[in-house]
What does this fold into?
Amino acid sequence: MGRLLRVLMVEDAPDDAQLIVIRLEQGGFDVQFRRVDSAQAMCEALDGPQWDVIICDYVMPGFSGLQALKILKEKGTDIPFLMISGKVGEEAAAEAIRCGADAFLLKGNLGGLIPAVQRSIADVALREQNRRHEQELKDKLTFIQVLIDTLPTPIFYNDPNGLYLGCNKAFEEQIGMKRGENINKSIYDILPPDLAALYTRGEEVAGNGGGPRSFEGTITCADGESRDVIFYSASFSNSGSTSGGVVGALLDISERKRAENKLRYLSTHDMLTGIYNRAYFDEELERLKKGRKFPVSIVMADVDGLKEANDRFGHAAGDELLKHAAEVLKNAFRREDVAARIGGDEFAALLPNTDEVALVEAMERLQQQLQLSNKEHHGFPLPLSLSIGAATALNGEDLTAAWRVADQRMYREKKGRSACTPQFRQRHISA
It folds into this structure.
């Protein structure tokens, strides 16, 4: 017994149908068939059991092979369709193939029937296998897309030319573009030019064997907020070992950056007054010793009457007096100068590239700023009064000595000052 072959015969001539069946049986098939000769009968047959092949006459009374082929296509069923005709030209045969027929044969020459049936069945099986593979791939891609869409980290993937192939919802939300809007767009269409250039350079390094890589940058999100991020990316290859593109992720490190900046700020600034602290002042002093910004002048200042303010008006008033002093020093000196709170009521300032003449001018600015600030703070219980001392060093070896002299002058003034505005005196310190 041969292979079972279920044939739907669309044929108006029973003898011609029987002849085709005999030829199929001679080819080794065990044939089960049904003959129909109208559109309605064909539709009913297609709604029934599955057929292995359809063999259709090209011309029938009130019906045609092309109409039958159209019915099959509308059903969406992939069944081998062989068109057979008694006599027809090449143009009609080409039209049948163009409309989807798997083969076109002449009734007077059925020698190619068996190979055509075998080939058509094999082609349909291959198409079905390809459809299954495509569906499996779609299912996997759908699963992967659902998986990455659940992740809060923005993820994207590009082709070898840097064009976007896809992304997850987190990436869409961050850049403010739907998936369909960024597909086939380049990195320069998505990111700011400077960051896109940095990313591109990173990809070029990876393309030369750099492997997985990461770098930090700042992006502007859809809400207009700038976020600090780390770009993580890696190249992937196709089955033929050719480059498939790049997959990447963005890790938002804005909170970490803010925490780092806050810690950095706290390590160098005084919590109460907001100006530099003693640790930063000492670091700058050591750095200036080894630098080339001489002459360097040092100013020391002590807040007068802090204890009285604390005793009479409370420590909150004393704190305000310290903030007032910090504001005066900060406004009196240049941006490149270092004003710091180095003790409870003591302040100091480092003035690089400042000789004796420039120091005198700086002290005048300080006194002017003090007077102006007291006018602005006239509602405060006690006016701000500062005992001040200063000195100048010409080189690094003199800097510590200058600090000591400035400190001594400040304490002499504090000890001997009267109710009038303190007078400033300074002298040059040499090695």
Remarks:
- The chain has three domains: 3-128, 151-256, 269-419.
- Residues 21 and 31 are 7 Å apart (CA to CA).
- The chain is about 50% helix and 25% strand.
